[in-house]
Write a structure and sequence with these properties.
homodimer; 392 residues; 14 strands; alpha/beta; 8-stranded mixed β-sheet
Chain lengths: 392, 392
């Protein structure tokens, strides 16, 4: 059979990262983006699941409504307003199957084949592949240490046709680690308004700040209903339960809810109940402080090791949070060759070109993760990378 | 802001049924499709969740791979081959976020704006809305008591352009209750092959046969890699955990997996572990026999009540399984008026036009569900419908 796949999907390849993860079992995992297992609130979840199955088993097992479990929506609305500054009076909120589903729902609701999605370059491959799969043409805007280049963004807005939205990760961007300054956030908002496009603000790591000052969400500036804000519990509770949320203007949420019905009817009730009870019955603020300490320790360890073993070979800016360090490989070294040799030596890292709109471009960066490996493996992994580096 | 939604989504409305469910709280629920709460294996799930959180909490909480939990894939592959006759040697299987996600993944992978999807008429609104949302034009083929009309199907295949696939629910079709004969299944397969289209075979109710003989799946005839088969645990374990699966030729599964990555990364690990352990550690065959007895009792009760209270007003064929009875309202009665009066009297049923490709068409049918209401409510609900019927 000569399968006639849709235009967006026919050229789509599996996520490079997820393929690396499947083939690098046994390697030291500096490639993944998994939270540290000791950052999971195992005892809390265990108690909650026991309580739920004891007291509300039918609620947990029966169909729910597409918007999400109403008490959780109420709780998250409070949090989105007060903690994240990501919800106004004209906005609504629904629960999603992780933040990845927000990308997918927004794509389904806004992208027609051939529409343009602007994104930071480099950017999160899971979002880029999602936009591609819905037939979007990606157009990348260079980023700097304080976020997207505003002049380049305006140039794109002037020249590109059919731009539907800008996709941005303002906090500890994946992969580049940069946090967008408040000035740039205001500029981005004004440009989006001026050129009549939406902003999709993805904030999966916002709670994981380990240094520097909080910067208000772009969504906090939204008086015009043009910002869609995506939040996630993957990094602060656990990714395996797949719970995220989205806030946006009510007419947008109405469409996202329709799309949600067509994608999976509703988010798993057990998972929603875990998050609801974790927020209302556990000390989630203390837990976040605890995991921030874990991530600060691991980030510091990675950077210390890099400074010791890879000085002059890898150049990087220390991020203020998140899970990744983005590093430039020394000029004259073939990045893909380095990544292959590292893999052969037992260390998995992600080649930077995976995060580009055109993955075939030459690009001398790699992404290193510090949340997945044990402290021991960070030390060992960077030591091995240092040895591989010496061969150049 | 004048939102520029995608073509498929801009005219999309929320599911009529899910809207009825939201507004009919307190009514007798003959409109839903919820499994009976006493059909949930509550004790099994409770024990499994306790064991999982005791022994494998990190597996349950960490990211999984997009294809699904490998031991569950292995178990379901066995089941798909041996129990459902729905998987050949050239096929693969992945786990989905309920069967609804199979509709969505297939849509994402096959539908470009303007492509045609053929479906039985009437058919499952959740699937139809999904195809619509991806920009498909729906083309309905009339169904009879033994399934789709073959001549009408061939006529459509001759005249419609850009047909991507036929969507069919061969067992206890939702809403019409019909089971497609084996002769028709063979004819449908041959026609699809002849005209070069795919078949999407949706079998959420297959395990719930309460009378008549098993009929092999269309997928069991598939020598050409043209049938995509969708299975679900919503009706035999619980819908709130959202676990389904899909089997298809390996190149198709590869694309569906890419799409799955873009939609939600992977299915909730807790849910996958529940199903895996339920299949391997519990007596799931005995459980299915138990719930079939529940549904047979409730179906018989509904039919007995209808025969007593609504004879001459509602005409129906008793289905051999599933969750629904499809009934024709007496000629000369305005179906929508009857449904409104029933709602006002406290009984929710679904107007039949909700299941049409063109929902504005006049259509004198309603769908009645017997799994959601208690036995008492079935008796009471049908009595009320009988009283409403007398007003005509």
């Amino acid at each position: 059979m000569d399968y006639k796949f849709s235009k967006g999907v026919s050229s789509l390849q599996p996520s490079v990262i997820r393929e690396i993860l499947k083939t690098s079992a046994g390697s030291i995992p500096l490639a993944a983006g998994n939270p540290a297992p000791d950052a999971f609130p195992v005892d809390d979840v265990k108690k909650i699941l026991g309580d739920v199955m004891q007291n509300e088993p039918i609620l947990a097992l029966q169909y729910g409504i597409s918007e999400g479990y109403a008490p959780l929506i109420k709780e998250l609305t409070k949090l989105a307003k007060e903690r994240y500054g990501a919800m106004g009076e004209e906005d609504a909120l629904i629960i999603t199957n992780g933040a990845q589903q927000v990308m997918s729902l927004v794509s389904q609701c806004f992208i027609d084949n051939g529409d343009v999605v602007l994104c930071e370059e480099p950017s999160f491959i899971g979002a880029l592949n999602c936009f591609r799969s819905f037939g979007a043409t990606l157009s990348g805007v260079p980023t700097e240490s304080d976020g997207i280049n505003i002049e380049a963004l305006e140039e794109k807005l002037k020249t590109e046709k059919n731009v539907k939205f800008l996709y941005t990760i303002p906090n500890f961007q994946n992969p580049a680690g940069a946090t967008m300054s408040f000035e740039k956030r205001k500029a981005v908002y004004e440009l989006a308004k001026k050129y009549g496009i939406m902003i999709l603000e993805d904030n999966p790591y916002g709670d994981l700040r380990v240094s520097g000052e909080e910067v208000p969400a772009i969504k906090s500036l939204d008086k015009d209903g043009i910002v869609i804000y995506s939040g996630s519990f993957s990094k602060i509770v656990a990714p395996g339960i797949r719970v995220g949320f989205v806030t946006a203007a009510k007419p947008v949420i109405a469409k996202l809810t329709c799309a949600k019905q067509t994608q999976d009817v509703h988010t798993v009730m057990l998972s929603q109940l875990v998050v609801y009870k974790w927020l209302t019955e556990c000390d989630f603020v203390a837990h976040i402080e605890k995991i921030k300490a874990i991530y600060k320790r691991k980030l510091d360890l990675l950077c210390d090791c890099m400074d010791k073993e890879l000085k002059g070979f890898l150049e990087y800016n220390r991020p203020e949070g998140g899970l990744f360090v983005w590093a430039k490989v020394k000029d004259g070294v073939d990045m893909r060759d380095f990544v292959s040799k590292a893999a052969a030596a037992g260390v998995a890292v992600v080649p930077g070109n995976a995060f580009l709109t055109d993955m075939t471009r030459e690009y001398n960066y790699i992404r290193l993760n510090f949340s997945t490996p044990s402290d021991e493996d960070i030390v060992k992994g960077i030591k091995i990378l240092g040895e591989v580096a010496k061969s150049y």
